[in-house]
Design a protein that fits this description.
The chain is an alpha+beta fold and 492 residues long. It has 14 helices and 18 strands. It has a 16-stranded mixed β-sheet that branches. Strands 12-13 form a two-stranded antiparallel sheet. The longest helix has 33 residues, at 8-40.
Length: 492
């Protein structure tokens, strides 16, 4: 029998190794716990909201871009004309919440001055009536997460307009593998304007970005809402006041009725979460005329964040043989929505899906993820019963986010800012949609049905092209999409 006796130096090295190992284990445990908490933390008050179904007046608007018969691209756009009309007619307040609100893009192509025109109109409105309450809520992506402060936002504040930069740290983490590290230390390092030295990822003409801004970008979270409310009317849309997005195809709903009160409260929750003063909202009051507006055959409900997914899954689950489901989407990747579509088709509902081919992003070429592998799954798992087409984009995007369920007597429409992805539907991003319920013969339902039928049937122009045009049955892209959706390591 032999006995091993460690020397003093050997014991010291062994002890230091144990301490280092224990310390590393504690750090890893801390990061894991931070990641788990960040992904599941309680939501701020007022988020993930589902209001009551209220009688109201609803109109459906579209922006459509498509190839004309003579080969020239046709632009039939009216959403921001409606936005301008609403601001012009407002007498008491304007409350605006927009995700992309800038003129930054790769300058090889010229676009309409959507953002600048809206900034000018808001400033003119405030100068004409200094007592009017104007509140603008937006996302820090427009400052590249603190690298700089654009002149457009400075001019709004200089005019006396309340500007709220959404505090994204209050939201749950959609990329927990990175955000745990971010919350544990990087978040506290701070950022400084005009000290960037890295190329701006959005535009070569814009100020450079800082390292911290790039790291902030990797959290992949956003206030993705697109909302306008005045005392007379509300608007919920998929469209951004972003110059490079001006040619995208989009949808919108104008609203009157009690739902406007819900819309104001929903936006107030975001503003207060981000440090706004509650007194700003003292004069943000809907007029009696707008509150009392109603149509006996139309009801509307405000739904935000995760309540959008819950509502959509519930409506898909209620479909049966003979019903028709149309879905139009820029991004479709949420597993529960995909399964809901396939199950509706299995029950005999006629399901038609129109997707962006995910090939263009502001002058950059994309790889087709997630829509192409998702389309392959839908077509093959349903043995072709579930039909898929691609919107015939010409460099712009099919930026619509809309579902229409037509039943024997009643129809349902769900649409707004939210893509059909985990990030948009899983209580991660901030999102605003509406659910409209009406007789299938109601004007709003006929307008939505006509919209979908027009772009599906191609009788007036080549709005859509067949599934085979961008079919992608690659195992690699399917795995990539599934991993990105599961992990949060994606921009969709």
């Amino acid at each position: 029998m032999s006995v091993v006796v460690m020397g003093k130096k050997q014991r010291t090295r062994w002890t230091k190794k144990r301490i280092a190992t224990a310390f590393l284990a504690l750090v890893m445990l801390f990061l894991i716990l931070t990641s788990v908490y960040g992904a599941n933390k309680p939501l701020p008050k007022g988020l993930s909201f589902a209001g009551e179904l209220h009688e109201g007046e609803v109109e459906f608007l579209t922006d459509m871009t498509y190839p004309g018969a003579d080969g020239e691209t046709v632009y039939e756009h009216g959403i921001f004309e409606q936005v301008h009309d609403m601001i012009e007619e407002a007498e008491e307040f304007v409350l605006l919440d927009m995700f992309l609100f800038n003129d930054e893009y790769e300058r090889s192509t010229e676009y309409p001055n959507v953002s600048g025109d809206l900034v000018d109109m808001l400033i003119e409105k405030k100068e004409t009536d200094p007592n009017m309450e104007i509140i603008v809520i937006t996302d820090p992506i427009n400052t590249f997460y603190g690298s700089y402060y654009p002149e457009s936002l400075k001019s709004l504040e200089a005019a006396g307009i309340r500007l709220v930069m959404t505090d994204l740290s209050e939201l749950r983490d959609s990329n927990p593998a990175f955000s745990g590290v971010w919350r544990a230390g990087i978040e506290w390092l701070g950022n400084s304007e005009d000290s960037g030295w890295l190329p701006n990822p959005f535009s070569p003409d814009s100020p450079d970005g800082t390292v911290r801004s790039y790291l902030s970008l990797l959290n992949f979270k956003a206030n993705h809402r697109k909302v306008l409310v005045t005392e007379k009317e509300g608007l919920v849309t998929s469209a951004n006041p972003h110059d490079a997005s001006a040619h995208h195809s989009n949808i919108a709903f104008t609203l009157k009725g009690v739902v406007l009160k819900d819309l104001v409260e929903s936006e107030k929750a975001v503003a207060l979460m981000s440090g706004a003063d509650e007194q700003w909202f003292e004069r943000v009051v809907i007029s009696e005329e707008a509150m009392n507006a109603s149509s006996s055959d139309t009801r509307v409900q405000l739904i935000t964040e995760g309540k959008i997914r819950e509502t959509l899954i519930e409506e898909l689950a209620l479909t049966e043989e003979g019903d028709t489901v149309y879905l139009g989407a820029f991004y479709l990747s949420d597993r529960l929505v995909i399964e809901g579509l396939k199950e509706a088709s299995e029950r005999g509902a006629h399901v038609r899906v129109i997707l962006d081919a995910n090939k263009d992003a502001f002058g950059r070429e994309k790889n087709g993820v997630p829509n192409r592998p998702v389309a392959s799954e839908l077509v093959h798992d349903s043995a072709g019963r579930l039909e898929v087409k691609w919107y015939n984009t010409q460099g712009e995007q099919f930026h619509t986010k809309l579902v229409h369920v037509e039943r024997q007597e009643e129809s349902i429409v769900i649409g707004g800012s939210s893509n059909f992805t985990k990030r948009n539907l899983g209580d991660l991003n901030l999102e605003t949609n509406v659910k409209v319920v009406a007789n299938r013969d109601a004007d709003v339902m006929q307008d939505v049905k006509t919209y979908f039928d027009t772009i599906w049937m191609n009788e007036e122009a080549q709005f859509t092209i067949g599934y085979e045009e961008f079919a992608d049955e690659s195992t690699t892209t399917r795995f990539l999409y599934r991993f990105q959706e599961w992990s949060g390591l994606s921009t969709f």
